[in-house]
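Can anyone check this?
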Amino acid sequence: MVAKAWGTPHPWLDTRLNRRVVMAFGPRDTEELETMAGIVAASHTYATAD
């Protein structure tokens, strides 16, 4: 996400959070909203996988 400029490392990265935690930027239009929805869905799938 960071490499594609869809987010930035979380400011608390080195203090409290896992190194993979990022803050996502808000979408500016419908196309970006669809992309962000896909990112959120993939993140949810990863986080809830057995």
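Reply from J.R.: I decoded it. The chain has one domain: 7-48.
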